[in-house]
Amino acid sequence: MASQSRRGGLSLPDRRGSSKQEPNIMDKIINSQIVSKGKQAASDTVSVAKKLLKSTGKAAWIAGTTFLILAVPLIIEMDREQQLNELELQQQSLLGAPPVGPAPPK
């Protein structure tokens, strides 16, 4: 049984009973007040960005649907009116009627 405990040929000191070690530089940096404030600021920034994106998306949806419901039919109707006016002008010119325009100055 004594040969089983020396398999690797190198024995490391037992850490169970050792006292606390001094924190290394990385532990000091990670646990510093500046880093914790930076993490908090980053977290706050992310939450504000999420809220902003959510509200921007809602506003874009409202603007888009409003445009489709109100502006598109108006644009279509204005186009029809323009085509009708052009057709009337074309018919008048074919029939020989004088073109309708502003009154000539006297």
Automatic annotation (TrEMBL):
<keyword id="KW-1000">Mitochondrion outer membrane</keyword>
<keyword id="KW-0811">Translocation</keyword>
<feature type="region of interest" description="Disordered">
    <location>
        <begin position="1"/>
        <end position="24"/>
    </location>
</feature>
<keyword id="KW-0472">Membrane</keyword>
<dbReference type="InterPro" id="IPR005683">
    <property type="entry name" value="Tom22"/>
</dbReference>
<dbReference type="Pfam" id="PF04281">
    <property type="entry name" value="Tom22"/>
</dbReference>
<keyword id="KW-1133">Transmembrane helix</keyword>
<keyword id="KW-0813">Transport</keyword>
<keyword id="KW-0675">Receptor</keyword>
<keyword id="KW-0812">Transmembrane</keyword>
<protein>
    <submittedName>
        <fullName>Uncharacterized protein</fullName>
    </submittedName>
</protein>
<keyword id="KW-0496">Mitochondrion</keyword>
<feature type="transmembrane region" description="Helical">
    <location>
        <begin position="59"/>
        <end position="76"/>
    </location>
</feature>
<dbReference type="InterPro" id="IPR017411">
    <property type="entry name" value="Tom22_pln"/>
</dbReference>
<comment type="similarity">
    <text>Belongs to the Tom22 family.</text>
</comment>
<keyword id="KW-0653">Protein transport</keyword>
